[in-house]
Every structure is written in C-alpha cells, then in structure tokens.
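Retro notes (design track)

What went well: tokenization of the new backbones is finally stable.
What didn't: we kept losing track of which sequence belonged to which structure.
Fix going forward: every design gets posted as structure first, then sequence, in one message. First example under the new rule, 215 residues:
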C-alpha cells in the first residue's frame, strides 16, 4: 500500500486550496454559485495513486481540501487519474459519471455542480503551488494540473508522468509491491544481458589475441 508523506501532501493541498479560493474571490458568479453549496462535503479517491481527498465548501464561500475527514459526505467517488481528468473537462459530467470507470456513492448533484463551477473559473495554480512546494515541484504540478484542463493524449501522458515523479520521488512514497517486483525483474534482466555482453567481448578479445600471436 502506498504511504504518503503527510507534510508534503498537506503542503500540496494547501497550495491547491489557495489557488481555488483566489479564483473564487475574483469570480463573482462562481462565488455566488459556490455559496449555494456551502456545507457540502465530497470524497474523492484516486485509485491509481492510492490517494483519498475531501472537498468541503464552507461559508464565505471557501473551498477546503483535506486528506482526512470523518464527517459524512454528500457523495464519494473513486476512479483513476484519467477518469477524473475526463470528468474535470467534460461538458456533460453526468454522462462521464455514467460511462466512465468512476464509482459513485451518494448524490451526484453537488459533485456535478462543483465540476461545472470550477471548469468555468480561471485558476492560477502556479504561484500558490510554488509557494507551498518550491519552484521546481510547484511548477511541475501546476503545469500538470493546467494540462488536465486542456485534456488530450499528450496531457494524459504528461499528467501521469508528473504525478508519478512527485508522488514517488518528491513525496517519498513506497511503491506497491507489484511495481517493486517488476523493477527487480527488469534489473535482473539487464544484469543478465550485461553478463552475456561481457562474455561475448571477452571471447572476441581472446580470438583477437590468438590471431595476433599466430601472426
């Protein structure tokens, strides 16, 4: 099971939360729409990185992002990175919920309403994430999130790579056992290839030495 670094995860969520709330403050229409969702809590499980997040709309209104919540949620959804990226950019989120691999528990109305509000906002992910995570990682994650909203095949590949680099390297996470076994098998295969290559080189050198002696 993947183990997340609480400090780094908390910093990433704080940066994303700040970015969302700055966008809300600058968008009067979104502000009013979110106000109607005050008190709503949603749970999100991204299965491909074993990460569970909670979104809460508080009075103000403001968006809160949490890694743990014991309060009841209006809806809980789980799916892969690709599933949620498709949901985030869809013009018909209800259809995505029905036709994608996303699993939904609870009422979808508040989830769809929040998706529609966020998809219309201009969000500056860069500055808050850089402040929270540093220049390099903050920029990488901000760029990955931006590409979610310009979704395409290239964005899908970039998002998975950026998240993998952050979660597995910067997040100091322990990869799943299956990934470790695959890595060990790959290392063993490479080692065997190197040994065979070394044997071939040694044989060629021996032949060259014999020819030199014969001459």
């Amino acid at each position: 099971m993947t183990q997340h670094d609480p400090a780094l995860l908390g910093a990433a969520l704080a940066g994303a939360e700040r970015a969302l709330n700055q966008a809300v403050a600058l968008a009067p229409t979104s502000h009013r729409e979110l106000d109607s969702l005050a008190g709503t809590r949603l749970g999100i499980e991204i299965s491909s990185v074993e990460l569970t997040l909670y979104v809460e709309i508080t009075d103000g209104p403001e968006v809160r992002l949490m890694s743990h919540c014991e309060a009841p949620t209006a809806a809980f959804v789980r799916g892969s990175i690709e599933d949620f990226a498709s949901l985030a950019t869809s013009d018909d989120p209800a259809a995505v919920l029905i036709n994608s691999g996303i699993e939904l528990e609870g009422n979808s109305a508040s989830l769809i309403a929040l998706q529609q509000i966020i998809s219309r906002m201009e969000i500056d992910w860069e500055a808050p994430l850089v402040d929270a995570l540093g220049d390099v990682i903050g920029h990488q994650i901000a760029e990955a999130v931006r590409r979610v909203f310009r979704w395409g095949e290239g964005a899908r590949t970039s998002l998975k790579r950026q998240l993998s680099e952050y979660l597995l390297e910067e997040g100091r996470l322990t990869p799943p056992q299956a990934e470790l076994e695959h890595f060990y098998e790959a290392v063993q295969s490479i080692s065997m290839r190197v040994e065979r290559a070394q044997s071939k080189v040694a044989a060629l050198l021996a032949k060259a030495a014999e020819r030199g002696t014969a001459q």
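Added context from the reviewer: The chain has two domains: 6-170, 176-215.
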